[in-house]
């Protein structure tokens, strides 16, 4: 390796370590100040008039919305005048990271569904977080409409609806309750197990992980990965592209580049590509087509939807529409031009949006801004059941750390612990502080409009 290249890598490594330390200390400082605020807080002396209560509605409870709810619940003034309402159709937090693995490996599927729990809000005043299990179908200027037909008024709104795929697994589960999700994963495992010729469309992270897992679990099956670009993992550096391609080929996966599967062409025996090629296929798995879930905003703020379907935002993460200063957007659905949207970014954005809402309720101007950070591009990619590569690329130089994997469940116990839940104890569907929309009163500010 040339000396300049070696120096560049060392410099990159140093910056990466500093980035990690900065993130760790800023999270530590934030958590500490929230804890101190909690200890110092006194409950309101007199009962609060319900019409004075201001409502912050959060749509979606995953890496962005669930963390926004936690930040708000621990930071809003503790005078009984605020409530947070989370609206989420899923019975459990869907942990996306493990979905490609659990589409292949049997016996761990329940671990992808982490129960929502009041313990996540342990450092918050009792009753501040309210939960509505439903789906928002549209957003109006002062309220949201639910699929169940009800309407919930808001003073502030945080949209954290993430991404969706119409085909469900392996990128999203495609069901709202855990039982159906577990069944869908088992169904996919059975399809993979009984197939002879598997075709995977999409050479991004989900496609590469699923194809390499399937090939290492079932070395005798024919597995083909079809990708439209000239390289798999094309959004990342050359080292990762090469490592992924090498791993696929070593495991016997046939990789077809610069071609696409013709939608609807899978007939149970074969599949057709746009080049006209036909491949044997008795199991087709689509790992493409992830889209931002911005539909609920299109009626209210059509100009804020970008050509890619993301919701345009200001640096404060307020929606890019000056008439809606009380609407914030964070996570995968926000247009923040990330090359590698991921959970760390979603949670960091959630914190910015929530911190700005806290300023706004105090009558101050939102001043926290989100800027993409060096280090956001780190990715850990599994390349079969027993190995992975952690990769970082800053657009010029890159660092790769090959690793051995020993846990088939990809250490998802850590994710359970991170959201205050004992791995893998399912406490059931979150019912604490559940509200029915009919029991909610409009806040005074809204009634007056
Ligand atoms: C297969 C796969 C593997 C991944 N692996 C990693 C990884 O290893 N590391 C990493 O950092 N990132 C990973 N990611 C990326 C990561 O999952 C996303 O960046 C992250 O989930 C974004 O979080 P979010 O909260 O913005 O959106 P989402 O996770 O998409 O969640 C959105 C939430 O909003 C809810 N919602 C949607 N519409 C509505 C509505 N109308 N009303 C009410 N609620 C609604 C949904 O039910 C959902 O709970 C992976 C992604 C995939 C697909």
TrEMBL record:
Every FAD/NAD(P)-binding domain range: 55-342
Pfam family, one: Pyr_redox_2
GO molecular function terms attached to this record: electron-transferring-flavoprotein dehydrogenase activity; flavin adenine dinucleotide binding
GO cellular component: cytoplasm
PANTHER family: APOPTOSIS-INDUCING FACTOR 1, FAD_NAD(P)-BINDING DOMAIN-CONTAINING PROTEIN
Protein name as it appears in the record: Apoptosis-inducing factor 2
Source species of the chain: Echria macrotheca
């Amino acid at each position: 390796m040339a000396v300049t290249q070696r120096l560049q890598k060392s410099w990159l490594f140093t910056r990466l370590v500093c980035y990690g330390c900065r993130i760790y200390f800023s999270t530590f400082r934030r958590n500490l100040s929230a804890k101190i605020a909690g200890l110092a807080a006194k409950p309101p002396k007199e009962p609060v008039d319900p019409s004075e209560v201001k409502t912050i509605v959060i749509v979606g409870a995953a890496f962005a919305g669930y963390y926004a709810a936690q930040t708000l619940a621990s930071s809003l003034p503790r005078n009984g005048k605020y409530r947070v309402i989370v609206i989420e159709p899923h019975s459990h937090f869907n942990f996306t990271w493990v979905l490609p693995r659990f589409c292949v490996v049997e016996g761990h599927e329940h671990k992808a569904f982490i129960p929502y729990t009041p313990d996540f809000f342990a450092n918050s005043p009792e009753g501040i977080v309210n939960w509505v299990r439903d789906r928002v179908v549209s957003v109006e200027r002062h309220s949201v409409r639910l699929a169940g037909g009800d309407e919930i008024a808001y003073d502030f709104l945080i949209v954290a609806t993430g991404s969706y795929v119409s085909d469900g697994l392996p990128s999203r589960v495609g069901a709202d309750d855990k039982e159906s999700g577990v069944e869908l994963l088992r169904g996919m495992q059975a399809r993979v197990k009984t197939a002879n010729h598997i075709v995977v469309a999409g050479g991004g992270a989900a496609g590469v992980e699923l194809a390499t897992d399937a090939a290492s679990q079932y070395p005798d099956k024919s597995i083909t990965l079809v990708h439209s670009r000239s390289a798999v993992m094309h959004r990342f550096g050359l080292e990762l592209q090469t490592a992924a391609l090498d791993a696929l080929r070593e495991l016997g996966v046939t990789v077809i580049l610069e071609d696409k599967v013709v939608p609807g062409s899978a007939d149970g025996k074969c599949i057709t590509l746009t080049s006209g090629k036909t491949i044997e296929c008795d199991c087709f798995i689509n790992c493409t087509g992830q889209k931002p879930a911005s539909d609920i905003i299109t009626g209210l703020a059509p100009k804020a939807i970008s050509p890619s379907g993301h919701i345009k935002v200001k640096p404060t993460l307020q929606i890019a529409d000056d008439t809606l200063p009380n609407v914030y957007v964070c996570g995968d659905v926000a247009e923040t031009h990330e090359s590698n949207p991921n959970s760390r970014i979603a949670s960091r954005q959630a914190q910015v949006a929530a911190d700005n809402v806290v300023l706004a309720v105090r009558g101050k101007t939102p001043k926290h801004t989100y800027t993409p950070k060096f280090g956001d591009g780190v990715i850990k990619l599994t390349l079969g059941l027993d190995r992975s590569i952690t990769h970082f690329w800053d657009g010029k130089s890159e660092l790769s750390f090959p690793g051995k994997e020993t846990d088939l469940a990809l250490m998802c116990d850590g994710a359970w612990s991170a959201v205050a839940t004992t791995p893998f104890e399912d406490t059931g569907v979150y019912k604490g502080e559940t509200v029915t929309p009919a029991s909610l009163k409009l806040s005074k500010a809204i009634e007056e409009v």
